[in-house]
Amino acid sequence: MKSKVETGKPPIVNTLLLVVATVLLIAGVAAYYWYQDLAITPIRVVGLIVVAVLASFIAAQADTGAAFFRFLKEADIERRKVVWPTHQETLQTALMVLIVTILISLFLAGIDWMLGAIVRSLVGG
Question: DSSP 3-state assignment of 83?
Fold first, then answer.
């Protein structure tokens, strides 16, 4: 049985919030290119960032937007738990990959040479 968490917001409100956020973002990108000749780039970039933040805030008010931002927050928490390898471990792993790649390529080249010799001897070459 499916259970859905009710937030009290009607679906039309959620849809309207997401549509407003999308239209705002599209209008911000269009304005960025529309005013290409009239405004200097840093001003246009700041304006686009402000519009993107505003659109994100509006989208976060919808249920799906809130769930998305909650997912991003949880993903960041998990990213912080990752233990990254040290410089020495990275070098050792890269060296091991390089050595194994060379050994396997030499092994496959040897098999190719032997099979080629067998085929040449069978066809009389």
Answer: coil
Q: Which two tokens stand for residue 11?
A: 């679906």
Contacts of 51 (CB under 8 A, 6+ apart): 24, 25, 27, 28, 31
Domain span holding position 98: 85-125
The pTM for the full model equals 0.55
**CB contact at 8 A, 57 and 16:** no
The answer to whether the CB of 17 falls within 8 A of the CB of 68 is: no
* pLDDT one-digit tens code per residue, 51-74: 999 999 999 888 888 888 899 999
Q: Which amino acid is at 54?
A: L
What's the total number of domains in the chain?
A: 2
